[in-house]
Amino acid sequence: MAGQFEPTADGGAAVALDEVEISILRSLAVQLMELVGPGDEPAQGGDPLAELFAEGPSEPPTDPALARLFPDAYGDPGAEPASAEAATEARAASAEFRRFTELDLRARKRGDALAVVRALDALTPEGDGGAVLRLAPDDSRQWLGALNDLRLAIGARLEVTDDEDGGGLYTLPDSDPRKPMVMAYLWLGALQETLVETLPG
C-alpha cells in the first residue's frame, strides 16, 4: 500500500504515508486554502437569503494559479475566436457565469482542502511517525478534488500547459530550483491516479 491508494472493503481507499509525506500534504493543503481565500464575498450579516443570491467577481483572477483553478466558462483561451463579436460574447457569458458560481466554487475548494487537513490531523502515528490514511467514499471525492486543485495550482506555477504530459519535468537536473515543486507535482499525480482507481465503477 505504500505510496499509492488501494481500495478498502467499504468502498473507500487507504494509503500508507510516512511522516514527511503527511507534513508535505498538510502544508500544501493549507497553502491551497490560503490561495483560494474567501474571495470577494460580501458581508451578508448572516442572512441566508442574501447569501443565496450573493454575487461574486465577474473578472477572472490575475494570478495564474487562481486563473487555472477558476477558468472562464466560455471560450477556449488557447484558440482564436471566430470573430471579435464571438470573443465579446464569450467574455460576457463567462463574466455572468462567474458572478453566480465562483463564490460557491471557492467554498467547495476550501472545503476539500480543509477535509485533507482534518484527515491528516486525525491520523494516529505509528512507530516510525507514519500512518495509514483511510478514507470513506465521500472523503475520497473530497480528496480527489483537493489533489486535482493542488496539481492545477502547482502546474500553473511550473507553467505546465493542459496539452503537455509533463515529460520534460522528469529530466530536470537536481540543481534546478523547480525540482522540489516538480517532485510534489508528480507525486500528487500518482496519488490522484491511484485514488481514482479505487472509486466504484
Distance separating the two termini:
21 Å
Rg (C-alpha, Å): 19 Å
Shape label: globular
- Ranges where pLDDT stays below 50 over 5 or more residues in a row are 40-44
Strand content: 5-15%
Class per helix and strand makeup = mainly alpha
**Sequence of secondary-structure elements:** EEHHHHEHH
What is the makeup of the main sheet? 3 strands, antiparallel
Q: Based on the structure, what is the oligomeric state of the protein chains? A: single chain
Going across the major beta sheet, what is the strand order? Answer: 1-2-3
Q: How would you concisely characterize the structure shown here?
A:
This protein has 201 residues and is mainly alpha-helical. Helices cover 54% and strands 6% of the residues.
Explain how this protein is built.
The protein has about 200 residues and is mainly α. About 55% of the residues lie in helices and about 5% in strands. The protein is built from six helices and three strands, in the order E-E-H-H-H-H-E-H-H. The protein has a three-stranded antiparallel β-sheet. Strand 1 (about 5) and strand 2 form a beta hairpin. Helix 1 (about 20-35) crosses helix 4, helix 4 packs across helix 5 and helix 5 packs antiparallel against helix 6 (about 180-200). The chain is globular, with a radius of gyration of 19 Å. The two termini are about 20 Å apart. The model is unreliable at about 40-45 (pLDDT under 50).
